[in-house]
Every structure is written in C-alpha cells, then in structure tokens.
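TL;DR need structure tokens for one chain.
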Amino acid sequence: MMKIIGIDQSFSSSALCVIDESALILDFSVYRSQKELDVYEKCYLVAKNISDYVIKYEPNVIILEGLSFGNLGNRTRDLAGLQFVIITHLRYQLNFNNIIIVPPPTLKKFATGSGRADKTLMIKNLPDNVSELFNTAGFKKTTGLSDLADAYWLACYGIPRI
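>> reply
TL;DR here they are.
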C-alpha cells in the first residue's frame, strides 16, 4: 500500500493527513503549539510531531505547502525557518528525501480550479465523506478544519506523483 502524508505546517496549528493511493484517509491530526513557547522550541516540536507521523506510517512521499510570497513581515521569515527545520529534520534525522513542496496557488488550483481560492472554498470542495469525517471529529473552521482541508488536498496532490 502506498502512503502519502500531506502537511499544512504552521506555528499555531499544523495539520497532517495520511492517505493511501485511492485517497482513503488513514489518519489525520492537528498539532497546536503552546503560545508561551519561543519560536525555536515551536519549530522543534512541530518537526518532532511530523517526524513521529513519518516513523509511524513510513510514507512513500510527503507533500508540504510552500511559502506564500505575497505576505510580508517577520512571520514569513519564521515560517521559512519552520519549513527549513522540518525538511532538515526529515532528511538528516530520518533519512527521508521524497519531499514535494507545493506553492499555495498550485494547491488551490488543484483543489478548486482557482489559484486564488480562499479557505472557505478549499473546505467546500472536500469530498462529502472527508468533510463529514473532519466535522465528526469536532473540527471547525476556527479550530483547524481549514488546516486539515489543506493537508488533505496536499496529500491528494501526491497521488499521481507516487
């Protein structure tokens, strides 16, 4: 069985979705960082959480959301650092190199047909069974549903690439 992990990484709410080659969800989660931690500890803990999933599921490919170059400020630098820490951890701690980075507009176009789709449309375009699964698990737009939607679409983006 082929396994793909889609990761929507962030400092506040990182979502992971593990699927097989038929887009069947095997597992999903949202990891929430503690607000009082500094940026370095948050980076480490997000990377460790992701590594735990990689060890558990032994995926064939990992798909990460790329950086948004339309945003400005220190937050974008921190997110670039987070992505760097995650990839470095995967490559050098776990010896995992099959990592694909998908630019946000490419992911949005894949999921909705529009590279400018907002979070609401990304959620709306989820298959009914996936939407129901995430909702039944208690996720709402304000509590990680949009992050899970992105992680699911990222994982699906990897299907034709395995």
